[in-house]
Design goal:
There is one protein chain. The chain has 15 helices and two strands. It is mostly helical. A two-stranded antiparallel sheet has the order 1-2. Helix 9 packs parallel to helix 14 and helix 13 packs antiparallel against helix 14. The protein starts with a helix and ends in an 8-residue tail after the last helix.
């Protein structure tokens, strides 16, 4: 079994947000940026993710005990809060440390970056914690996650001082909605047992999955517009986003069998991890002046 703090923080699951952040970083950074600012930005991102996941673990303690590990990065029934290896008080102390760290290093990166990290910190709190606890309410569970993905994409772009396009942020937001829907559905059984009314519980797994089709159509139109009006760098990204979003939507709907989604987590984690790695390397090479921007 993994160490208790690894099970609490679940760094593998961070890939879902590292994906938009690293793409933003790779697109926005230039050789004129300060190396320390980039390092501070990634520390702030790590602290933000840690803050969100410890709060989520604390708030979901009574839900995670029903989990069986299907379609997740780990069996949530082995969360250290569920097993009693870590106390709620300890988690609260950790959350304060992570929150302070995220804001401190964001401030050292730049004002705009600080403001964007502050927003996603707030979203992380209201998503998991009462009284709002948006993750337990239909529609807002998806919108909150998607909004965080769009803003962290903007934060990645802001590291390089790049002008933030509303069209691109909108495209990231819609794509995030598409990719988060299957995650809500994989939790359907456990959320229903716990008495939560998430989007999957409220609409039903089949109807919610079918909502991916119109969302994918909108995402395709947005990213097609980006493809037709941008340089090579964004054209490559737009093409990848369009193709994989369509494939993911079709496969997700095929994998639903009697209200249970049999979609392996690697359909998200593997391509997101590979893309994140490529864009981080691309950004670092641009930062060091070893590569000029494509297009």
């Amino acid at each position: 079994m993994k160490p208790k703090y690894m099970r609490l923080l679940r760094p593998i699951a961070w890939i879902t947000f590292l994906f938009p952040f690293s793409i933003g970083f790779g697109l926005g950074v230039t050789s004129e940026n300060n190396l320390f600012h980039v390092v501070f930005a990634f520390i702030a991102f790590t602290a933000w993710m840690s803050f969100c996941f410890v709060l989520n673990a604390l708030a979901d303690k009574d839900v995670d005990k029903f989990h069986n590990g299907r379609s997740k990065d780990m069996n949530l029934a082995y969360q250290p809060l569920v097993t009693g290896e870590i106390t709620g008080k300890e988690v609260l102390h950790l959350s304060m440390v992570f929150l302070f760290s995220s804001l401190l290093f964001a401030w050292l990166t730049g004002l705009l970056f600080f403001l964007l990290i502050l927003i996603v910190d707030v979203l992380g709190y209201i998503y998991s914690m009462p009284p709002m606890r948006l993750k337990t309410k239909p529609v807002t569970d998806i919108l909150c996650n998607a909004l965080a993905a769009g803003i962290i994409f903007a934060a990645g772009l802001s590291i390089g001082g790049t002008n933030i396009s509303v069209v691109m942020i909108s495209g990231a937001f819609i794509v995030a909605c598409v990719f988060y829907i299957p995650t809500v559905i994989t939790d359907y059984e456990f959320d229903k047992k716990a008495g939560l009314v998430t989007s999957a519980v409220f609409f039903g797994p089949k109807k919610l999955l079918q909502a991916m089709y119109p969302l994918t159509a909108v995402a395709t139109l947005i990213w097609l517009t980006i493809f037709l009006t941008s340089g090579l760098e964004l054209r490559v990204l737009a093409l990848l986003v369009i193709i994989y979003t369509i494939v993911f939507t079709v496969v997700s709907n095929i994998k639903l069998k009697e209200k249970r989604l049999y979609l392996h987590e690697n359909w998200i984690l593997l391509p997101f991890a590979m893309t994140s790695t490529i864009f981080v390397i691309y950004g670092v090479l641009k930062l060091l002046g070893l590569l000029t921007p494509i297009g």
